[in-house]
Amino acid sequence: MQRLLVTMAAVAASAFAQGSSSYKGWEAYGGGYENIHYSSLKQITPANVNQLKVAWTYESGDAYPGSDIQCNPIIVGGVMYVTSPKLRVAAVDAATGKEMWSFDGLKGRRPAHKNRGLTYWTDGKSARILFALDTYLLSLDAKTGVLDPAFGEKGRVDLRAAFDRRPEMTTISIPTPGAIYKDTIILGSSVPESHPSTPGDILAYNVRTGKLQWSFHTIPHPGEPGYETWPKDTWKYTGGANPWAGLVVDVKRGLVFAPTGSAAYDFYGADRIGDNLYSNTILCLDANTGKKKWHFQTIRHDVWDLDFPTAPLLATVRKNGKPVDVVVAAGKDGFIWVLNRDTGESLFSFEERAVPVSNVEGEMLAKSQKFPLKPAPFVRQEFSEATVTNRSPEAHAEVMERLKGLDYGGRFTPPSLRGTVVFPGFAGGAEWGGEAFDPETHLYYINANELAWISKLVLPSQLTQRKSAASRIYRSRCGSCHGPDMKGAPPEYPALNGLALKMNATQLAGIIHKGSGRMPPFASLGDPAISALANYLLTGKDEEVAVERGPKPPVELKYAMDGYKTFTDSEGYPATTPPWGSLSAINLDTGEYVWKVPLGEYPELVEKGIKDTGTENHGGGIVTAGGLFFIASTHYDNKLRAFDKKTGKLVWETKLPHAGNATPSMFELKGKQYLVVPCGGGRERPSGGSFVAFALP
After folding, report:
1. d(Cα 476, Cα 681) in Å, to the nearest integer?
2. pLDDT tens for residues 63-105?
3. What CATH number has the domain spanning 460-557?
4. Which CATH superfamily is domain 2-381+423-451+580-695 in?
């Protein structure tokens, strides 16, 4: 039976790799190489969706407090491949939910980074599952879950070897699955967002051998186009400009489309004066060679962390009555860019507008930025007194009083020493769950957050609460992400005030030395300082210690941000008026909105009669030929919802065991349509580890 399933998987994936997917399965992250989150299945309709029942549940069994699931399952030939909260890879019978094999590369320890899915490759004879774990790219036999001995060194490739920096000074992880082109897997990455950082090079590896095929420097080297948009030799010491949210490949054209994030340091750019290509850019590369075809930069010299947070999608729309193949990318800023795949030309008009200048010493922002005229932004673009919450008179008055000490306005209001309201905030606008596109109606769907955050620049000395060295190291090197109070901004920036219950001094020192996920390596501090810092974090004991220093940038950064802070009232609700989360449908032929609805609710507010607020949401949704749009991304209500895809009317909802903060998948098996929803919870809510499949009776 297992051999039959794997054979079916190989045949299905081989057809998929040639670009002939029927959209009846879910063979790749986002549903197929176009990443449009679409299913051609029609069994489930608005008329019968209320009859959906749980068909089976796969319980991974390794959830822990604070864990979540961000994995979008892939299903190939009757086998579902997923990662658990502890990043254990599992192959599951998609008809029954029974586990067929699993691979635990971390041996039970908690992961230092997220995983949003797996990559499947086959040549029709053998099949592989590729994914990243720590700083390694791994290849597993899809039939057995055993490491492929022909790939790299015993099934692993050290991703740090692709960079021209010492491995101990390089931190990289791959949260989003790579894209397959022929026998090549092409990868974006997650790197530290503060100094020291790793550049966001795009990497391509041979799937059979693990050999590096090509790389593209997103921070250009001397002689490369774009080098002139940075200070001299910036590529030697800075990082970022990385497509952490993933990329897509047009397999027919042999083109890679990669949307990049901001450059390090995220919030103060005195050491990177200039436009900073190729940060905040949609890049088009030759999939065979990695050579640039074209680029489209949407934000110059970003100091607001306005990354492209999701992989783009490939669609065909109509312009002046003719079909045009486009790549579509949505940003945290709430803007949607629709670009011709061959030329990079925007299908809709945009204009350059003057933006405010910074009054912070050393900072030099771009004088103007791009503003698309269509589609209109899918979230609000300006914070004003009219935007302040009206949840209650007390909450309104409290936020208005706090606003007196902050700078606010449009989304390009510069970070300041007073503190600046960032709106849309660091969590979007768009988030990593991604968009959907219906090739039948040309409707484009995007779920979004509408939450304000606060960015405040401070002198590193202002982050120091004590004069001793260990605490000083923490405040200057760690405080920007984990906060002066060590409470962090989970899950991206975890709290550190309970580490003693999770690890010992040796384990923690190893993480500080090597880095992890977005966290850079701090080997340059030297072993005595690392040991003192680890001891301080675990016990609170402070001590003076000598600090070694590695290579310095030519401009020492004078300011840092004092931590990631959401702008909320005293009860923890958003400081803005609703909607706090939304779902929109836009006709990409015209750029006009068809409908928009709030997405999510707070159960305790509903009990008080406060409805339709929307909430923070992260996973994406699925649009179907059966007339529905499914989404389970809402953070607080643990609901799976189905909307009429043409009208936005809610036609069905059900409670999940935990919040579904990931994109579901849809597939057909033995004539039956299934919807499988990852239910991981987390994000400071109860955590779970289940995948729940729904089907009609």
Report:
1. 32
2. 999 899 999 999 999 999 999 999 999 999 999 999 999 999 9
3. 1.10.760.10
4. Quinoprotein alcohol dehydrogenase-like superfamily (2.140.10.10)
